[in-house]
Design brief:
Blueprint: E1 5-6, E2 15-18, E3 25-27, E4 32-37, E5 44-52, E6 61-73, E7 75-76, E8 79-80, E9 84-94, E10 99-110, E11 120-125, E12 133-135, E13 144-154, E14 163-168, E15 174-177, E16 180-183, E17 191-196, E18 207-208, E19 210-217, H1 220-236
Antiparallel strand pairs: 1-17, 2-15, 3-19, 4-14, 5-13, 5-16, 6-11, 6-12, 6-14, 6-19, 7-8, 9-10, 9-13, 14-18, 16-17
Length: 237
């Protein structure tokens, strides 16, 4: 799948949502489709990810612990086409109309996804990520905090569509708009959101396969401790 169309955003109804438990998984799950997407050499595709935050306004950041991205790889002439890949975690911005990309962190890089003789949806694991804490976008949708996960194909075969980010249906943990963003599509040098598949845009599944483990800052337990500390302080006074 090599073409995409601009998505006209709707309201919160455009977001599929499933409640997040206290587990480390803050976004992911869902059912694979039969499609994949490769934005071409030099471009980064970004999946929008939202997780539930409490109503106190205290949970404004996400510490990224790890991520797993699903890459669909097809054989050609009896072998997989090798490719390199970078994975990014980025802050999401929102100015009241448009979504954008803020601070961008590379959390994984490999020059080769390896060889093989059979088509596969390869799960690429970043391993433990340290030192990456994202400011969440909390304005666009009440009760949700948003950020981006990005994928860039690299190397001589970066634009070969035998490799592509697997397209998914709605997540089972977290929430997302049925669309994606991108940096430097067709050499534009800019970030743009949103794009989606189908006619009209968004009529076909347009989410991309990623599971993200993270820790909301402060965590629910930390909020409870802060409240207890306040009570102790008042009693002492």
């Amino acid at each position: 799948m090599s073409t995409f169309q601009k998505l006209a955003l709707g309201s919160l109804a455009a977001i599929a949502f499933a409640s997040t438990s206290s587990a480390a998984l803050v976004y992911g799950g869902g059912t694979e489709t039969g499609s994949r997407f490769n934005a071409g050499a030099g471009a980064i595709t970004y999946m929008n990810c939202f997780t539930a935050i409490d109503g106190t306004g205290a949970q404004t950041q996400l510490a990224v612990d790890s991520a797993i991205v699903g890459i669909r790889r097809l054989v050609a002439s009896g072998a997989l086409i090798d490719v390199g890949m970078n994975i990014y975690a980025a802050e999401m911005t929102f100015d009241g109309v448009n979504f954008g990309r803020g601070a961008n962190y590379q959390i994984y890089s490999s020059a080769s996804l390896g060889a093989g003789a059979a088509s596969v949806t390869q799960l690429v694991n970043t391993g433990a990520v340290s030192g990456v804490t994202l400011n969440l976008e909390t304005v666009s949708n009440a009760g949700l905090g948003g950020w981006w996960i990005g994928v860039e194909f690299t190397g001589a075969n970066a634009a070969n569509t035998a490799n592509g980010w697997r397209v998914m249906n709605a997540p089972t943990t977290g929430a997302s708009i049925n669309a994606f963003g991108g940096f430097n599509f067709s050499g534009s040098g800019v970030f743009a959101a949103f794009f989606a598949f189908g006619t009209p845009p968004g009529s076909s599944p347009s989410r991309l396969m990623v599971d993200v483990n993270g820790t909301l800052v402060p965590a629910p337990g930390a909020i409870a401790l802060l409240g207890l500390a306040g009570l102790v302080g008042r009693r002492r006074r």
